[in-house]
Amino acid sequence: MNTFQAPKGTYDLLPPDSAVYLAVREAISAPLRNSGYGYIETPGFENVELFARGVGESTDIVTKEMYTLTTKGGSELALRPEGTASVLRAALEANLHKAGNLPVKLWYSGSYYRYERPQKGRYRHFSQVGAEAIGAEDPALDAELIILADQAYRSLGLTGFRILLNSLGDKECRPVYREALQTFLRDLDLDDETRRRIEINPLRVLDDKRRDVQRQLTDAPKLRDYLCDACRVYHAEVRDLLTAAGVAYEDDERLVRGLDYYTRTTFEFVHDGLGAQSAVGGGGRYDGLSEMIGGPELPSVGWALGVDRTVLALEAEGITLQLPPATSVFAVPLGDEARRLLFGVVTELRRAGVAADFSFGAKGLKGAMKNANRSGARFTVVLGERDLAEGVAQVKDMESGEQKPVPLAALVADLTAKLT
Ligand code: HAM
Q: Is the domain of 129 the same as that of 278?
């Protein structure tokens, strides 16, 4: 084993690419922060029970993909495979829903863990930015979340994504549909594992990618035909609000999603430039989740967007984000006195809000200039012994190559003015 290798299915974020990840998290969360969502952070692990009950005992996430561990004290924990169950648990624990202001709107950003077969866009450690609106049943809330995700992607310059939309019905109509679907599926020619799935989670069979299965599903009963009036009206309202907001979506009645807690509105953001792992984000309404984990009735809705896949989508569309420079001024002292003086200048520049860096270690001019170049700085300040004697520093514009002496007393003001 090479000790310098990250575990399978994981990768490190390193500069300069890591700056893109920060910018993506920022861009996804900006519309949420601007719409009444407060930041929440929960632990990286929870009791296994929370996900088993919340995400669902029959899902791949719970049966195959969770990283579980037993603590020395005997607790059964799992690294969080997703954020919704944790956020709802935290909101219930803190009684946020009792503070009187429903919905409780929260956003989060963090690492999630799933023991999946790694491939491009699918990792065992990945990152999401998510939003949950807890405790309100209102089609405008579902629409708000979809509109904000759309706004986030557009603010990054992305255009190659599509929004798939479906309604999964509620506790009144879904059981009726489920039974009709089971009756239909039991008559098909399917393998044993799929037969078992019919009994546990028949809607997932609709999601089966194999052609011989899909061929048999052509005449399967459609959930749309089973939606109760309340669900039908609710879904129509969500669709109307999206249309009024100018957000395009596609109806996809096969959209099932891999987590059990969804009711009514479900949606996925897919990007066509990503190959097999095309879902850049997904979410929906989960009106029964609170009760499933032992809480009161709290109809809620939310989504999570995958940061890793959003970065891949930017690459697929050839988008380079305009990021602020990591370093605007690079300081190169030659000699001990120059070092002391220039270090003071760098400190002052930083306090004035200018991104500045310094040539550390005893380097010659050539090595230091190489560092200056690599830093991407717009200006390099060189202070040699002769400059010191004359009371100036040499300021080099790294774009034009032009170099000019600037009086030391005016250096900070001069650079700050040039850069703002
Ligand atoms: P999810 O669809 O499982 O939903 O994940 C959301 C997004 O996380 C995916 O669309 C994808 O971009 C990213 N993602 C998931 N698994 C991986 C992976 N192995 N590697 C890289 N990216 C991945 C949820 O997690 C729900 N909690 C969303 C939600 C919030 N529903 C309601 N509220």
A: yes
Distant-in-sequence, close-in-space partners of 182: CB < 8 Å, separation ≥ 6: 198, 199, 202
Atom from ligand 1 closest to the CA of residue 285: 32
Domain containing 405 equals 329-419
Q: Residue 43 has which token pair?
A: 């632990």
Q: Are strands 300-306 and 125-134 parallel, antiparallel or unpaired?
A: antiparallel
Confirm whether 294 is domain-assigned: yes
pLDDT in tens, 312-357: 999 999 999 999 889 999 999 999 999 999 999 999 999 999 999 9
Q: Is 306 in the pocket of ligand 1 (CB under 6 A)?
A: yes
Give the total number of structural domains in the chain.
2
Judge if pTM exceeds 0.70.
yes
What distance in Å separates the CA atoms of residue 43 and residue 25, rounded to the nearest whole number?
A: 19
**In the chain, count of helices (H) and strands (E)?**
16, 16
2 pLDDT more than 80: no
Mark whether 312 and 335 lie in a shared domain.
Answer: no
Q: In terms of domains, do 276 and 312 share one?
A: yes
Concatenated DSSP letters of 154-177: HHTT--SEEEEEEE---TTTHHHH
Indicate if 299 and 354 belong to the same structural domain: no
The CATH number of whichever domain residue 82 belongs to comes to 3.30.930.10
In-domain check, residue 267: yes
In sequence order, what are the residues at sequence separation of 6 or more whose Cβ sits closer than 8 angstroms to the Cβ of residue 42?
A: 80, 83, 86, 87, 89, 90, 108
pLDDT given at position 100: 81
Same domain, 354 and 297: no
Tell me, in angstroms, the distance from the centre of ligand 1 to residue 335's CA. Answer: 54
Distance CA 369, CA 300 (A): 56
Looking at residue 47, what is its pLDDT?
A: 98
Verify whether ligand 1 is closer than 6 Å to residue 60 (CB atom): no
Place of tokens 């009371």: 391
